[in-house]
Records
---
Amino acid sequence: MGNLDGKTTFITGGGQGIGRGIALEMAKAGANVIIAQRSDKAKIVVDEIKMLGRDAIAVNMDVTDFNSIQKGVNTSFKYFSRIEILVNCAGVAIVEKGLDDASSEGFDLCYAVNLKGVWGVCKAMIPHFRENHGGKIVNIASIAGRRGSAGGEAYSVSKAGLINLTQSLACSLSFDNVNVNAVCPGVIKTAMTERQKKEFKKNDYFDNFKNMTLLKRLPTPSDIGYAVVFFRHNKQTISQDNRSMWIVAIV
C-alpha cells in the first residue's frame, strides 16, 4: 500500500525523461496517473504503470493550445471522477551561442511551452480543485531559472517566470486549499540534455555538472519523482499576513 493510494495525478510531459520518472514514482506511491503528451511515448509509460498495478491513461495534449488543454482535461474527467494532483513537467530547452545568435522563434517557443503552457493547464484544472475543496500543483522549473545559464537565456527566463508563477499561484489559491510548489532540477541525463550536449559539442558536458554536485553524481528522473511525491504531503503555511511556499533545487 502506498501513501498516494486512491489519488489521481495529471502529469504533462509524462511520457519521457523527468516526466516519466515522476509518473513511475507517483504510481509506486499508489497513485493512478494521467499522462498528457503529444507523442505516443505516453502509451509506453501507461503500460509500465499498469504493470505496477495502478490505473493509467494517456491523453493527447498540446500545452501551447488552450483548446487542446481543455479537451485533454475534459477527457481525463470522463475516465477519472476526481484528480487531486497536477504536475506540470512539459518543457523545451533552446540552446544558442549567445544573444546575438538567438532567434525570436526560440524565445517564443520557450515562453509558450515552459511558462504560458503551465499557466494554461493550471487555468483549466483549478476550477475542479475548487469544486473538490483542494488540490496539489507541482511545477517542474529549473535551477537555470534561479541563476541563469550561458547560451540558455530563453530557457532560463521562461523558468524564472515559472518560479514566479508558482509563487503567485501559491498566494492566490491558498484560501482555496490548493497547495502550489516548484521543483528546480539541475542537469539530468535525458533525451533533451543529450541534445544539448551535441549542440554544445562537449564530450565532458555531463561530467562537468556531475563534479559540481555534492554527491558527485547527476540527479535522476526518479530523484525528481521522489521530490514530487514529497510535495504531495507538504502543507504550505498560509495566513492572511503570512504566505509561504517551498521551492526545492535538486542540483
Note: The beta strands are 8-12, 32-36, 56-59, 85-88, 135-140, 178-185, 247-250.
---
Amino acid sequence: MVVDLQFFADPTAFLDVAADHLSQSPVEATVIATIADRAARERADGIEPPAHDWYVVARDAARGHVVGLGMRTAPFEPRPLYLMRMPDEAATALATTLYDRGEAVRGVNGALPSARVFAEETARLSGRTARVHIHTRLFELRELTPPRRQVPGRLRPAVDSDLDLVKTWYAAFMRDADEQAGREPGSGHDEEPSDDVMLRRIHDERVWFWTAADDRPVHVTGTNPPSLGVARIGPVYTPREERGRGWASAAVAEVSRRILEGGSRPCLFTDQANPTSNGVYVALGYQPVVDTVHLLID
C-alpha cells in the first residue's frame, strides 16, 4: 500500500477530515478525539495551541480513504506521538517522513502493533533502540456490575478549595503507579496540569472525590468530557494509607454509572503491570478493547 500523509496544525480542520474514521472506533479513538476536541474548543475561545503541535491523517493513496490517525500534542517530554491502529505501511511512512524532515522523536504511545512498528522504524533510521516503557490496555464498560463490597461515604465533585489536594494526589498517582509497576518513580512521563487547567477541570466537574463517612476525602477519580459518545476515566488514585478499603471500586463504579446514565460509554486505561487495579475494573464489568503501549527510543 502506498500511503499519503496530511499534517494539520488546526485541530478543527483535522477533525473535519478525521471525523468519520474516529467515529468508526470511538472507544479506541478516545485519546485523539478528546484532545483534538478540547484544542478545537480552546482555539475557538482564542487560546491558540502550541506551535509545534500537529495531527496527521494517513490515506490509502490508491483509494483515497483514511487508514490511520495520529498526533503529537503531548505537553511533557519527550513529547511522544500518539497513534491509533493503522496499516504497517502507514506507520512506517510516518516514521520515514518525520525522520526526513528532521523531527526528533524519542517516544510514541498508542495502539499495538502500530506504535511498535513506528518506533522500530524510527529507531532503525536514527541508529537507536526502541524499548517498551509501559504496557497498557484500554477497557470499556457496557454494563456495570456493582461492587460486592459496600463502603461508607459518597462521591462529591472537587471544588476550588480542593485545588492543592487535587494537584498533590495527581502527582502522587504518577509516582505511585511507577513504583507499583516496578519502574523508577517519576519515570512515567505524564502531564502535570497547571493551576488554570486543573481549575477548569474542577469547574467542569471532571474531578471527583470519594469521601468517607466523616466527609474526609480518601480517593480521587478524574474524567474527561465525552467525545463521540465516549467518556474516559482517569486518573484513579487512592493514597497509600487508605488503600484496601474499597474506595476506588466505589468511586469508579459511581462515576461509571453517571456516565452511562448520561448516555456515554465509559472507558479507561490500565497499566498491565498492576494486577490490583486491573482486577478492580474487571470486577466492575470493564472489558478489554485494545492493547496499547508507551515506547521510548533511546
Note: Helices lie at 11-24, 30-44, 88-100, 114-126, 163-180, 195-203, 247-261, 275-284.
---
Amino acid sequence: MNQCYADFAVAYMSFVPVYILLLFEDSESPKSTLKHIVLGLVCCAGAALTKQAALYLVGVYPILCFVKFNASVRSISRLPRLGYAILSYIVLAALVSPWYLFVNDRIKRGVDQSEVPYVTNQIYHGADLGSRCINSLSTITKDITTDILIFAHIVRLRDSVIIPIAVIIGLLVLLYLVCLGIRDTTPRLLVILVVAPYYVIWTLYFSYGIRNLAIILPVLAVAAGFGCTRIKLLQAFSSPK
C-alpha cells in the first residue's frame, strides 16, 4: 500500500514565511513591513495546519519577525513593536487553535487516535534520550545512503565505493557552506532560532526518520546559498560582466 506523507507540503509551507522575511528590505515603509508580517503569519499558520511539526515555527516566527524588523523600522517605538510581537502570537493562536481543539476533542471522544505517544516514545522501543541522539546520526546517513543507492542502482553503480564517499563529502560540503553562510545576519538568525533548536528536538523525539527534518532543510539550503556567495570562484561566475 502506497503511503502519502505531508513532509514535502509542510517543507514548502514552512519555507514561504521564511522567504517573506528574506524578501524584506530595510528601506521599506512601516505599512509595507506590516504587510510582510501579516502575510508571513498566515503562511506560518497554514504550515502548522499542514503538519504538527510546523507548530515549532508558530512558536518562533513572531520572534523572527521582531528581531528582523526591530532594527529596520525605527519610526515605530520599541513598545508598540513588542506589542506587534504579542499580537502576532494571538493571531497565530486564532488561526491554528480551532483545528487542533477540534482534533483533540475527537481524540477524547475516541473518534480519532493520537500518534504522538507512538512517534515520540514507543517507536524507540525503550531507548533513552542519549541513545536516540547517537542513533539519529545513523538515521541521517542511512536514509541519505538509501536514496543515493536507488539512484546508483539506476545508473548501475550500486556496489561502487563512490556511494559512501559521496554521502560523506556531500554532508561536509553542506556543513562548510552553512558555516560560511551564517556570517550574514539573516541566515545566522534562521540557524540559531529555527535550525539548531528544531534539530535538537528531532534528535530527541522524531529521529526515526530524516523526513521529519523537512521543515528545516530549505532553511539550511538558504544558509548554504549565502555561503556560496562568499566563495570567490563562485563570485567570479555570478558577477556582472
Note: The mean pLDDT is 81.
---
Amino acid sequence: MLVVAAQKRVAVEVKVPQLLRAPSTAVGCDRLLKIVKAAVKGARTGTKGQLSRERPALLVIGGFHLAPSDVHDFQSAAAEYLRGATGAGKHAHLMGIGLLWFGSFPVHGPSGWTVTATLHMPVAVNPGYRGDIPFTTK
C-alpha cells in the first residue's frame, strides 16, 4: 500500500515472474506481453482482489539483469495491454504498470574494478485511468 496523503491510498502489487529473474537472453516484446497479462490476472484486479477496483492501483513487475532492449519492449508491451484494456472498458482504477528493473555492471575506477547496482522503474501509464488521485511519471 502506498499512502499518498492522509486520506488517499494506492494499492501496489509487486510480481516477479520466474522468466524475469536473470534471463540468459533478451525476453522480447511478445513474451513480455504474456508476462504483463499473467501479472494482471495474478493480481486479481476485480472488486475483491489484491488490486481492488475500490481504490487506485499500481502494478509493479520486477526483473533482474534484463537486457536493455527488454526495458523498451516492456514499455511497448505494457502500453499495448493497457490500450486494449481501455478499449474494453477494463482496469480504470489501474494507474499504470511499472517494471522495477534491478541490474549491475562493472565499473573501472582508480583503485580497480567494482560492481555498481542499478535500479530503474519505467511505468506505462494507463490511458483509461479514472481514479481520483492524479498520476504522472515526470
Note: Residues 107 and 113 are 6 Å apart (CA to CA).
